[in-house]
């Protein structure tokens, strides 16, 4: 599932993000279990910007983006910006171990099912990972992309 290097950022979204929710659409609420077994609802973050990162430990492009996502989290996480990782791992131990070992210190949730079998992938139109959304404080999609560079630029513009 690696992106070919000749695609521009725009081309990558045109090819891989075609079914993601569009800007301005209300982001559906969801409730899932966290990596530490607690229940998490996205609605608990209403009033904040939410970076919603769809990924899996078995995905090479997702693993490649981890250092940049950690940098974005460190730079922008605040009382106004929250990060949530949505994993498509089926092995709970592998998922939890990866999150811990890589010091991914934000909320992580999963259905512990294959991507195509999850309700959240269907609800959010995720056909490719990594896919990332930024949800605005009113619960509407601000950005849906497969390109982490766009996430950084959007967070930078919000932060100004």
From TrEMBL:
Q: Which GO terms describe its biological process?
A: cytochrome complex assembly
* InterPro entries, per the entry: AhpC/TSA (IPR000866), Thioredoxin-like_sf (IPR036249), Thioredoxin_domain (IPR013766), Thioredoxin_ResA/DsbE_sf (IPR050553)
Which compartments does it reside in? Answer: Cell envelope
The source's superkingdom equals Bacteria
Top-level EC class: oxidoreductase
Q: Provide the Thioredoxin domain boundaries.
A: 21-160
Name the Pfam families on file. AhpC-TSA (PF00578)
Q: What is its EC number?
A: 1.11.1.15
Main localization of the protein? other
Query: What GO CC terms are in its UniProt record?
Result: cell envelope
Keyword Transcription among record annotations: no
GO terms, molecular function? peroxidase activity
| UniProt keyword list | Cytochrome c-type biogenesis, Disulfide bond, Oxidoreductase, Peroxidase, Redox-active center
Keyword flag RNA-binding: no
Q: What is this protein called?
A: Antioxidant, AhpC/TSA family
Kindly list the organism's lineage.
Bacteria, Pseudomonadati, Bacteroidota, Bacteroidia, Bacteroidales
